[in-house]
Amino acid sequence: MNPFPKPLQAIIRIIDAIGEWSGRIVGWLIIPLIFGLTYEVIARYGFNAPTVWAYDIAYMLYGSLFMLGAAYTLKKNGHIRTDMFYDRWSPRRQGWVNAFSYLFLFFPGMIFFLISGADAAIHSWTILEKSDFSPWRPPLYPFKTVIPLAAFLLIFQGISEFIKSLHAALKGEWL
Predict the structure, then answer these.
(1) How far is the C-alpha of 150 from the C-alpha of 157, rounded, in Å?
(2) For 130, phi and psi rounded to 5 degrees?
(3) For residues 51 and 40, is the Cβ–Cβ distance under 8 A?
(4) Which of 121, 153, 117 has its CA nearest to residue 25?
(5) Can you tell me the distance from the alpha carbon of 26 to that of 33, in angstroms, rounded to the nearest whole number?
(6) What is the chain's pLDDT, residue by residue, as a tens digit (175 residues)?
(7) Roughly how many angstroms between the first and final C-alpha of the chain, as a whole number?
(8) Residue of 74, 65, 164, 140 lying closest to 110 (CA atoms)
(9) 128 — alpha (psi -120 to 50), left (phi > 0) or beta?
(10) Which is nearest to 113 in space by CA: 105, 159, 25?
(11) 30, 72 in Cβ contact below 8 A?
(12) CA 145 to CA 23: how far, in whole Å?
């Protein structure tokens, strides 16, 4: 078998490093999420003084953690699949199924997600959108920016995964 082309190996290493790096940074959002919720629980049940901001902070931090962590999860092969079939297949067949899925399902969906998310984020920044459902009306535009950023990170990591899948499909082994 021919060795995998060095430029593609370099691209995979760079993309995977960015996916790893972004996932580790985004993981730190769990700390303010825990502190905010802990404060809310103590204030609410210990002092009968609930906050007006805890719910908004919790959904924004958790939503950001969930969305921005998706590329890291993709890199770690942690997304859902029907393993009872997939695990029984040869690396070649797994690679073809993955490559097809990335090319015809994943990338079109993520590109749509990126474009529509960017439109929503740009509009939100333009009007400096604030929440209408909270008495303290937190800004929503930073949170809405997470959507296109998550889509971009997913597309970027998807490129690496597509190349790895194509290699498995053609060579019969995973990188």
Answers:
(1) 10
(2) -125, 155
(3) yes
(4) 153
(5) 12
(6) 556 788 999 999 999 999 999 999 999 999 999 999 999 999 999 999 999 999 999 999 999 999 999 999 999 988 887 778 888 999 999 999 999 999 999 999 999 999 999 999 999 999 999 999 889 999 999 999 999 999 999 999 999 999 999 999 999 999 8
(7) 13
(8) 74
(9) left
(10) 105
(11) no
(12) 17
- Cβ-contact 98, 165 below 8 angstroms: yes
Write the single-letter amino acid at 75. Answer: K
What burial letters (b/e) apply to 117-147, b meaning 16+ CB within 10 Å?
A: bbebbeebeeeebeeeeeeeeeebbebbbbb
Contact 144, 129 (CB under 8 A): yes
CB 50 within 8 A of CB 43: yes
Which pair of structure tokens corresponds to residue 65? 């953690």
